[in-house]
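ok new one. same drill as before - structure tokens go in, u give me an amino acid for every spot. 302 of them this time. try not to just spam alanines like last time pls lmao
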């Protein structure tokens, strides 16, 4: 493993590349990444990055967003099959239908979406900025795509808006049940429950804190409590433990494992950098249209 890491370091120098990783990828990849973070942080890093090559250890929509924001860089993906199923759970026809049905409508798309959906939306959001962004929108009607659970969480905070939900979901977060949380609380009554808003509303209701992966890490780090029940993909445990060696973290269930994020390995990071393969390419018109929704998010959320 150490040799592989050295090889990756050398390749990064040789190709003038930066390695970005999401908190859900394997510990070994997080360990060697130049930047690790949530979706919003990584989008901002991609925007300001000046290296020639961005190697994105994450799922497709992340690399796509990096390319949309940074067309002059080469963006490569360690595994092109690492895709987020939720990103495909809405289609353009449904968006067009809502635009016909409602006046004064904003189409808000979670960054976990395809470039095509972004191109047909008014603004993008991530789990860490969705509340701020939607609050700032002048429109009363909000069509929130593709994730119903994040939409419902934000909708519950903004009763003055009329939310229309789409039935997309993350299978990893949906597999966490309220029963799982209650049982974990029985075993560890002193623990605080930290929940990602992609979880179902009954799980969100049990959270002492609800927020993005970075939000969960920051909350646990600042908290004076020592024990936590974590309701999100288990990859966050790496950073949680790095930052809080004296604290204890329990993963709430046994299936909090995103098979797509876990496709990224040291081997495919090395191979991709070495061969400069799996480059993200987008038709220019699509890129420019999708960029408007990302730019709008960056403008409002800053
Ligand atoms: P955040 O890291 O933005 O909370 O997103 C979670 C996620 O599901 C990424 O796929
Ligand atoms: Fe998609 Fe869920 Fe995996 Fe995130 S954890 S990439 S939302 S399937």
């Amino acid at each position: 493993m150490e040799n592989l890491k050295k090889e990756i370091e050398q390749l990064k120098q040789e190709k003038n590349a930066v390695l970005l990783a999401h908190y859900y990828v394997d510990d070994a990849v997080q360990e060697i990444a130049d930047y690790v973070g949530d979706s919003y942080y990584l989008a901002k890093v991609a925007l300001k990055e000046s290296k020639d090559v961005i190697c994105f250890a994450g799922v497709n929509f992340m690399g796509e967003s990096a390319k949309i924001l940074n067309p002059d860089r080469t963006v490569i993906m360690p595994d092109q099959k690492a895709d987020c199923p939720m990103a495909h759970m809405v289609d353009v026809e449904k968006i067009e239908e809502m635009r016909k049905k409602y006046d004064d409508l904003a189409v808000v798309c979670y960054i976990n979406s395809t470039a095509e959906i972004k191109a047909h939306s008014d603004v993008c959001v991530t789990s860490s900025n969705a509340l701020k962004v939607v609050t700032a929108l002048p429109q009363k009607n909000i069509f929130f795509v593709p994730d119903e659970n994040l939409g419902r969480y934000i909708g519950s905070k903004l009763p003055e808006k009329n939310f229309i939900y789409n039935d997309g979901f993350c299978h990893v977060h949906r597999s966490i049940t309220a029963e799982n949380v209650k049982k974990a609380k029985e075993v560890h009554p002193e623990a605080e429950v930290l929940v990602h808003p992609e979880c179902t509303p009954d799980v969100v209701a049990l959270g002492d804190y609800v927020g993005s992966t970075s939000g969960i890490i920051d909350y646990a780090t600042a908290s004076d409590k020592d024990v936590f029940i974590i309701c999100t993909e288990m990859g966050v445990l790496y950073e949680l433990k790095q930052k809080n060696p004296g604290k204890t973290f329990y993963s709430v269930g046994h299936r909090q494992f995103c098979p797509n994020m876990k496709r990224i390995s040291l081997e495919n990071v090395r191979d991709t950098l070495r061969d400069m393969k799996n480059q993200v390419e987008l038709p220019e018109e699509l890129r420019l249209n999708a960029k408007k929704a990302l730019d709008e998010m960056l403008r409002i959320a800053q």
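The mean pLDDT is 96. and btw The first strand starts at residue 17 and ends at 22.
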